[in-house]
Amino acid sequence: MEELTSHLQRIIILAGGKSSRMGVAKANLVFHGETFLEHLTRTLSPLGIPIWVLASENSTSVLSANGKTCRHHVDCDQQPYAGPLMALCGHISRHPLSPGAWVFVVGCDTPLVDERFVRVLWQVGAARMSDHLDEVEAIGYRLPGSLDPLEMTPFPALISSRFLNSLPQRVNEGERSLFRALQSRPKVVVEGKLILESLADFAAGDLPPWFNVNTPAEYAALTGLTEPL
Questions:
Q1: Residue 86 backbone dihedrals phi, psi, to 5 degrees
Q2: 134 lies in a domain?
Q3: How many domains does the chain have?
Q4: If you count Cβ atoms within 10 Å of the first and of the last residue's Cβ in the chain, which end, N or C, has fewer?
Q5: Residue 161 clears pLDDT 90, i.e. is over it
Q6: Domain presence at residue 228
Q7: Which residues, 6+ apart, have CB-to-CB distance to 135 below 8 Å?
Q8: What pLDDT does 111 receive?
Q9: Is residue 229 part of a domain?
Q10: Where is the MobA-like NTP transferase domain (predicted)?
Q11: Buried b (16+ CB within 10 A) or exposed e, 136-153
């Protein structure tokens, strides 16, 4: 099986900007004394891979719980609030990837994702890819209960440099949806149930690692708090 760390070149966290529904940037929401961004960077750091944070505003918009700016690479969107595909396109235009490299892309509003999730995605994907690693452009998951076996959630996911380096051309051709752009590409889609079964400490009733915080109700489900700190 191909080793993850020999192919993974970069971790990209989509931090975005201020959320209209939450009233603050979701990257700065607090979870167990850390911001979502701090929590993600800490739990993904054991992979030993450079972390890039894509922000819709400036580096001061992604802060630690004590107000310090992010210590990882921060790349600010040239077209803020234009969505994840445009954020990734701008980043790759400025910082292209090496051929054959892979990137783990995750939103800051899924703070339960950690390095174990990334390893499970890769292990299952690499086993299914066998000798066709160079032909696959993404390894992602589908939600339990999804009826379409090829419907992949755009992130969190492992995405190849072949796909990401092609984004500027796709945008020039009119593409604006990351979900749509990935749907037609060769990929491996891992069942969400299989991921949960591979996490030794996951128990019935736990929130899944891909739990997404978009509303105050979801924030309350995660933290027990009704208002963002």
A1: -70, -35
A2: yes
A3: 1
A4: N
A5: yes
A6: no
A7: 129, 186
A8: 95
A9: no
A10: 12-182
A11: bbbbbbbeeeeeeeeebb
Per residue in 2-46, pLDDT (tens digit) is 688 889 999 999 987 778 788 788 888 999 889 999 999 999 999
The answer to whether residue 61 scores a pLDDT higher than 60 is no
- Whether the link from the prior residue into 50 is cis, omega within 30° of 0, is no
What residues contact 94, with CB distance under 8 A and at least 6 apart?
Answer: 75
Asked if 155 contacts 11 with a C-beta cutoff of 8 angstroms, the reply is no
Structure-block tokens of residue 88: 């990734």
pTM: 0.91
Question: If pLDDT is split at 50, 70 and 90, which confidence band does 1 have?
Answer: very low
Provide DSSP, the chain: ---GGGTEEEEEEEEESB-TTTSSBGGG-EETTEEHHHHHHHHHGGG---EEEEESS-GGGSB-TTSPBPSSEEEE-SSTTS-HHHHHHHHHHHSPPPTT-EEEEEETT-TT--HHHHHHHHHHHHHHHTT-GGG--EEEEE-TT-S-TT---SSSEEEEHHHHHTHHHHHHTT---HHHHHHTS-EEEEEHHHHHHH-TT--TTSPPTT----SHHHHHHHHS-SS--
CATH of the domain at 81: 3.90.550.10
pLDDT at position 66 is 58
Tokens representing residue 161 in the block: 């440099």
Given a cut of 90, whether residue 146 has pLDDT beyond it is no
Specify the pLDDT at position 60. Answer: 55
Token pair, residue 97, equals: 């990837």
